[in-house]
What we know:
The structure is a single chain. Helix content is 64%, strand content 3%. It has helices at 44-50, 53-71, 75-117, 127-145, 148-165, and strands spanning 4-6, 9-10. A two-stranded antiparallel ribbon has the order 1-2. Helix 2 (53-71) runs antiparallel to helix 3. The chain has 5 helices and 2 strands. By secondary structure, the protein is mostly helical. It is extended, with a radius of gyration of 28 Å.
Amino acid sequence: MPRERYSKLPVSTIRDLNLESLGGRQAPATRDPRFDNLSGKINDGLFRESYAFVKDLRAERISTLQSYVSQAKSTTDKKRLREMLGAEKDAMHKAEQRGKDKEILKGVKQENRERAARGLEPKYLKKRELKDLRHKEAFERLESSGKMKEFVERKQEELDRKRVKR
């Protein structure tokens, strides 16, 4: 509430509660479970395990949306379905990326524990270093699957197209 209603009449700081509107009882105290100690700490592993079915539901939804896109007759319906499909794929990709980031951070924490055991200072990652580790892991995955050559060729073609446009 503002200290003053308008410039000429100051509002008193002590106000009477309007208990009649509450039926003679006080309003229940609201609490946000995200910040309340009564809710306890979140167990991330248990949470992921409990809601693992969501990933299956998302994959199922993607496949049904793909079939709907192929069956859609009007262009507006197709466009709307493609947007929904893209949003679902994007959400799935982001969830996978978060999982990979957690794995990278888990490795860094393990390395910090080892450094502490040797008496060295811990190493804290900057956002750029995390991004570099992410890229390094992606390149290792491409290398192990044998798709590195295709990736490099595709990137080279993109660069060539950009050079031609200039």
